[in-house]
Predict the structure of Beta-amyrin 28-oxidase.
Amino acid sequence: MEVLAVILSLLLVALSLVFISRRRNNAGAKLPPGSFGWPILGESVEFLFGKPEKFVGDRMKKYSPDIFKTKILGEKTAVICGPNGHKFLFSNEHKYFTAFRPHPMQHLFRSYKDKAAPPPPPETQRLDETKTIRQPGFLKPEALMRYLAKMDIVTQQQLKTHCEGKNVVEAYPLAKTITLTLACQFFLGINNPERIARLVKYFDDVTVGMHCLMINVPGTIFYRANKAAAAIRKELITVIKEKKQAMASGGPMLDILSHMIVATDPSGKSMPEAEIADKIMGLLTAGYSTVATTITFLMKYVGLNPEIYEKVRAEQMEIAASKKAGELLEWEDMSKMKYSWNVICETMRLVPPLQGTFREVLTEFSYAGYTIPKGWKVYWTVSTTNMNPQYFKDPEKFNPSRYEESEAPPPYTSVPFGGGPRMCPGKEYARLAILAFVHNVVKDYKWEVVDPNEKVEGDMMPEPQKGLPVRLYHH
């Protein structure tokens, strides 16, 4: 009995020390209000399968309009809300935050990593992920300027192939095929529509799988995403080998894939093919899904609003009239598409192609009177402002004129591409791809939406239930 009493006493002392130590570690730390939800799952189910704006809006009302805590996709997360939150996040990049990919994304796009090796420190991950595309400046305006004519040609060809002579076309599959064709041309330098069409379904599965529960059994989202990523990877390895052969024969190096093949690290070592394949897959996914979603819902809202269609067409026909026969779009033309860009911005406000992104906290900081510990994640989302009547009058109404100078929404309320140093590097690419589509589609066609009440499925990645069939009228 005496021995047992001693052991129990020692256990009590040990537990007391742990409790005191924890209290000291959190002394003065006032965590944001909120709930971590269920054990293991946290609030992931509500986050993934409820409407994002409802998930965020409900908690802003319940806890705080500025910040709340949650646990999603396995991570303790602070959601920083509203325009002030956006400004704080975008202004303190690298000081408090670094990029963070949810675990499903890490698994899908980092197959080349040694799973047993320790992950690199968070502050170096960001550099590793984007230096490939930022340094050569492929996505800078001067590089895109050279590619614009090709975008114009590819869009014309795709519209002719998929729309000419047809009365009804499904806008969503059309947008996906055009967008993936453009992305494969730009990133890989391949122009083979049949080869690209085979990949569309795979990219859809990967896109949905980027934010999901990591349950790898047949029938689950994650299982399908894994299989799709493997199929894309296999195709990309073949493309890489073909590209290497072409380059060895003196072929041109005008795409990002060529640059990745010749790029070396400081020790002079080239990137392995498996790593190139994963990085290119990530770029293609980013340059495909968001652009295709925006084009699709632009077709919907413009088709439902004939007066907006007429204004867009008048703007684009004025540009077309200034050109000689066969002359392609030029950089200067894009600055004349002001109303068309407003239409695109309003589409992205009503149907955000990207709900938000995660950051990892590099060092403990305070915001709105609360402390966010190092190692937590921060979630930035458009859902805290997009549909708020405080910032957008009649938020349910599709009104491109709200972006005109006299009506412009307050700063940091409309941020579909993020902001600060972490602003989406593909913003300019997306802008040109969508405007090139708008220019060509309104020149040749008018359309009406077959089912104005068609449901929108998917939450993180919205899509029309029936593919958004539209009735075409050729000019």
